[in-house]
């Protein structure tokens, strides 16, 4: 856990820029291709599973202080109304699609992360860490996952027939 949201946003931005530059598979960056032939359905599932596996590994190596801070965030997210979790997931999905689209300049990637954190949006992969720390699975995680997919598809140029 970062000592402040600003530092957290900066670290998340650096991580997302690295993911883009290295062309790694981040689930929320790949949902924009859902209605293309770029990936098969099971590839999306594998990307999601391996992203969640990465979160589990990070949880195992996290400090007790980080886990305690994450648990409080996870409990708050678990108590959100399902529809709020969904809408906050849609906002995040839209911003993460914009931030990870291959023609997006890296400074937009950084701004997209700052915007999603400042807005308090929900990210299905990052929030999995919070729910894990809280020791509870919440149906809100499903709302966040669906929201990230919907938001990603709403803003994806691929959804509306772009050829790139």
SSE blueprint:
Elements: H1 5-22, H2 27-30, H3 41-61, H4 64-78, H5 82-100, H6 106-119, H7 124-134, H8 139-155
Can you name the CATH architecture?
Answer: Up-down Bundle
What's the CATH class label? Mainly Alpha
Q: What's the count of strands?
A: 0
Which regions are unreliable across 5 or more consecutive residues at pLDDT < 50?
none
Strand count, sense and barrel status of the largest sheet are: none
- Output the radius of gyration: 15 Å
Beta-strand percent range: under 5%
Q: Could you state the CATH homologous superfamily?
A: Glycerol uptake facilitator protein
N-to-C SSE string, H for helix and E for strand: HHHHHHHH
Structural class: mainly alpha
Count of the separate structural domains: 1
Shape: globular
Helix content: over 70%
Tell me, rounded to a whole number, the average pLDDT.
92
Number of helices: 8
Query: What name is given to the CATH topology?
Result: Glycerol uptake facilitator protein
Distance between the termini: 37 Å
How would you explain this protein's 3D organization?
The protein has 164 residues and is an all-alpha fold. It has one domain (5-155): Up-down Bundle (Glycerol uptake facilitator protein), CATH 1.20.1080.10. Helix content is 73%, strand content 0%. The chain has eight helices and no strands. The chain is globular.
């Amino acid at each position: 856990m970062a000592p402040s949201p600003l530092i957290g946003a900066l670290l998340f931005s650096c991580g997302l820029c690295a993911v883009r530059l290295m062309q790694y598979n981040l689930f929320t960056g790949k949902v924009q291709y859902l209605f293309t032939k770029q990936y098969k359905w099971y590839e999306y599932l594998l990307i999601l599973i391996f992203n969640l596996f990465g979160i589990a590994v990070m949880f195992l190596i996290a400090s007790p202080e980080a886990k305690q801070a994450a648990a409080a965030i996870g409990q708050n997210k678990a108590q959100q109304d399902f529809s709020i979790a969904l809408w906050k997931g849609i906002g995040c999905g839209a911003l993460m699609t914009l931030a990870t689209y291959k023609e997006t300049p890296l400074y937009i990637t950084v701004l997209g992360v700052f915007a999603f954190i400042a807005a308090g949006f929900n990210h299905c992969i990052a929030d999995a860490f919070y729910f894990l720390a809280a020791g509870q699975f919440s149906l809100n995680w499903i709302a966040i996952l669906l929201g990230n997919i919907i938001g990603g598809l709403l803003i994806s140029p691929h959804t509306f027939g772009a050829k790139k």
